[in-house]
Amino acid sequence: DQQVKQNSPSLSVQEGRISILNCDYTNSMFDYFLWYKKYPAEGPTFLISISSIKDKNEDGRFTVFLNKSAKHLSLHIVPSQPGDSAVYFCAASVGGATNKLIFGTGTLLAVQP
Amino acid sequence: GAGVSQSPSNKVTEKGKDVELRCDPISGHTALYWYRQSLGQGLEFLIYFQGNSAPDKSGLPSDRFSAERTGGSVSTLTIQRTQQEDSAVYLCASSLNRGGANVLTFGAGSRLTVL
Fold first, then answer.
1. I need a labelling partner for B96 at 20 to 30 A (CA). Which of B2, B27, B89, B115 fits?
2. Nearest chain B Cα to A51, which residue?
3. Rounded to whole angstroms, how far apart are CA atoms B37 and B25?
4. How high is the pLDDT of residue B94?
5. What's the Rg (C-alpha) of chain B?
6. Three-class SS state of B18
């Protein structure tokens, strides 16, 4: 049962343009959503989060949008840079004492110079 | 320490052998999580520790997998009688888990290859 889905395995964009990474989820009880970036041979690193009571959160070039009615969120990167090339994981937290993160399968972003 | 440290970074073993993977979390982080990433897959939750207790072991795939944490710090994930399907990158993460967005800090992982 894949509760967090990233349906695009890969995405290629030109440097300076916008990158939009998408994520869908099925569990309406998720309370926070997080995006992580992962370079090869490194662990995932935290990028940005959003509470389920918000619909937008912005941090520099990164903006996350949440559409609760559609159970959909997206990460926008503007402008995209070659150093942004990595695998991006969407994650959702279940709350409670464990508060573990449920991850999607990731999207490989390639930013072409 | 400054970050989450995992060892070994790479482990190649023969089917049927036991392996131990170690995680040294960020000092002061009471919550510790183990995940694994198989080829082409997302991060799969294995087990959660709060202090030395493991209130959530729901992700352990079989009874060949076990984990412990001592002193509220270092954790060891043990896989007994390894199988080829155990081949994956095993990632450890720690956090303060104080409510709000639970930002996990991950180590670089231990890549396990079972021949």
1. B89
2. B101
3. 19
4. 96
5. 13
6. coil
Tell the burial category of B40 from Cβ atoms under 10 Å away from its Cβ (0-12, 13-18, 19+).
exposed
Residues in chain B within 8 Å Cβ distance of A49:
101, 103
> Hey, what amino acid is at B82?
T
Scanning the structure block, which residue is given the tokens 């919550």?
A: B31
Tokens 């997998």, residue located = B65
Q: Which structure tokens are listed for A43?
A: 């662990």
* Cross-chain Cβ contact B106/A44 below 8 Å: yes
Q: How confident is the model at residue A22 (pLDDT cuts 50, 70, 90)?
A: very high
Could you give the 3-state DSSP secondary structure of residue B85? helix
Whether A34 and B103 lie within 8 Å, measured CB to CB: yes
> What are the chain B neighbours of A105 within 8 Å (beta carbons)?
40-42
* Interchain proximity A101–B102, CB inside 8 Å: yes
Q: Is the per-residue pLDDT at B1 higher than 80?
A: no
Is residue B29 scored above 70 in pLDDT? yes
Give alpha helix (H) positions in A30-80.
none
Tokens of B64: 């060949």
Residue A1 has pLDDT above 80, yes or no: no
Cis-peptide, bond into residue B8, ω within 30° of zero: yes
Task: Decide if B105 and A46 are in contact by the 8 Å CB cutoff.
Answer: yes
